[in-house]
Design brief:
- By secondary structure, the protein is an alpha/beta fold.
- The protein has one domain: Rossmann fold (3-Layer(aba) Sandwich), CATH 3.40.50.720.
- It has a seven-stranded parallel β-sheet, sandwiched between helices.
- Helices cover 48% and strands 14% of the residues.
Length: 263
């Protein structure tokens, strides 16, 4: 199926590993040009080199910390310099620290707001005018299933990503007439090195207990497995495609049916 992404220019956050890297690979295979950003230069350039070798895609990179306002704008400028257009914006980064809400001070809250909410606000504000010039675009935000089904210890992410979902829904109403769609994906537990470290931390280094926690999570997931980065990337690629042109303002769980919410 031709997804209509050949020649499109996509900005992808966290492009050196995990969901960001898998998304970059998926879009590159569809013929998109990529601007990847991440914090670490070595891993980022290695990821870009692999994608070029495997797909022949044009890939540019920008080392950036999305929590810094100046870096939000610099990423957009770098994409414009490389490709002269912006068609797809994938807002993807890590998550704030885990912990009890009442233990976080104002500084922790301010960092979480900058990372999860204001980075998207700024990047969208910079990218949307160029999408309008291109005749349309796709904005796709990556959050987590905890924003739909809150869990203790994830409060910084839940609170700030809830704000992002409200922002995304409102933005979808305002830019819809410009043929720009805005959607948010909520991945469930994804089988990545970061996830493995999370089990290890929760089990306090007890490998047997960590495996038991992993097994219990899988048993509570209807499809009986953890998700892969490629599962999420496939959803991103679809929402970026021309086939998804009539889908906007949606918050989509990609969690193997684990979340209990009806909507």
């Amino acid at each position: 199926m031709d997804m209509g992404l050949a020649g499109k220019a996509a900005i992808i956050g966290g492009g050196s590993s995990g969901i960001g890297y898998a998304t970059a690979c998926a879009l590159a295979r569809e013929g998109a040009q990529l601007m990847l950003w991440a914090r670490g230069r070595e891993a980022l350039e290695a990821a870009a080199s692999r994608i070029r070798d495997q797909t022949g895609a044009k890939v540019a990179v920008a080392v950036a910390n999305i929590a810094k306002p100046e870096d939000n704008l610099r990423i957009v400028d770098a994409a414009l310099e490389a490709f002269g257009r912006i068609d797809v914006l994938v807002n993807n980064d890590g998550a704030p620290p885990l912990g009890t809400l009442l233990d976080f001070d104002d500084t922790a809250w301010q960092k979480a707001v900058q990372q999860n909410l204001m980075s998207v606000v700024r990047t969208c504000r910079a990218a949307v005018p160029h999408m309008r010039k291109a005749g349309g675009g796709r904005i796709i935000n990556i959050t987590a299933i905890s924003v739909r089904q809150p869990a203790a210890g994830f409060g910084l992410s839940v609170a700030t990503w809830a704000g992002l979902i409200g922002y995304a829904k409102t933005l979808s109403l305002e830019v819809g007439p410009d043929n720009i769609t805005v959607n948010t994906i909520c991945p469930g537990r994804i089988d990545t090195p970061l996830s493995h470290r999370g089990f290890e931390r929760a089990a306090e280094g007890d490998a047997k207990r960590a495996q038991q926690m992993r097994d219990a999570l899988i048993a509570g997931t209807p499809v009986r497995r953890m998700g892969s980065a490629e599962d999420v990337a496939a959803a991103v690629a679809f929402l970026a495609s021309r086939q998804a042109a009539f889908i906007t303002g949606v918050t989509l769980p990609v969690d193997g049916g684990r979340s209990a919410a009806l909507m």
